[in-house]
Structure formats: C-alpha cells, structure tokens
C-alpha cells in the first residue's frame, strides 16, 4: 500500500512536471506568435504611414507646381503689359524728340 502511494505521488509529480513543461512551451509559442503579429502590424503601420506621407508629398508637389505655374503665368502677363507700356512710352519719347527737333 505504501509503495502504491509512492507510485501515485511520483506519477502525480511527473504529470505536474509535464503540465509545467507544456505550459512553458505553450507560453513561449504564444509569446512568439504575439511578437510576430506585432511585428507584422508594425510593418503594416509603417508601410501605411509611408504611403500616406508619400501621398501628402505628392499632393504638396502638385500644389507647389500649380502655384509656380500660376505665378509664371502672372509674371508673363505682367511682362507683356510692361512691354506694351514700354513700346508706347518709346513711341511717345520718339515723337517728343522729333517735335523738339522741328
């Protein structure tokens, strides 16, 4: 009877050891899975953030290009007006000089 009790205790200890080992293995597996998942989520988040940043940069570039084009157009219009004004002033100056000479 004493031997049977000892055997039952040993068996219970072995089962407890196995349960502990299984729990450690499962815990390690769950931790690794969580790390893998967090790494995947982080990479996805980084990729998404990069894509959003690129989209913002592209939009800003397009907007900047449009502003430059608008300013260039305005400058060309001002140059045309100034050129016409200069031509008129030049003709007036020529007329004035001719009138002073005669």
Note down, in words, how this protein is organized:
The protein is mainly α and 102 residues long. It has one domain. 98% of the residues lie in helices and 0% in strands. It has one helix at 2-101. The relative contact order is 0.03.
Coarse shape: rod-shaped
Helix content: over 70%
Query: What do the pLDDT scores average to?
Result: 91
Oligomer: single chain
Helix-strand makeup class? mainly alpha
Any descriptors?
1 helix; 102 residues
Structure described in brief:
The chain is mostly helical and 102 residues long.
Set down the secondary structure blueprint.
Layout (H helix, E strand, L loop, with lengths): L1 H100 L1
């Amino acid at each position: 009877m004493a031997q049977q009790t000892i055997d039952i205790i040993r068996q219970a200890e072995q089962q407890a050891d196995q349960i502990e080992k299984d729990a450690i293995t499962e815990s390690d597996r769950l931790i690794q899975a969580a790390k893998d998942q967090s790494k995947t989520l982080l990479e996805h988040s980084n990729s998404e953030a990069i894509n959003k940043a690129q989209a913002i940069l592209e939009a800003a570039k397009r907007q900047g290009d449009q502003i430059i084009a608008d300013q260039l157009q305005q400058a060309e219009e001002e140059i045309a007006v100034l050129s016409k004004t200069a031509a008129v002033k030049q003709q007036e100056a020529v007329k004035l000089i001719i009138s002073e000479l005669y």
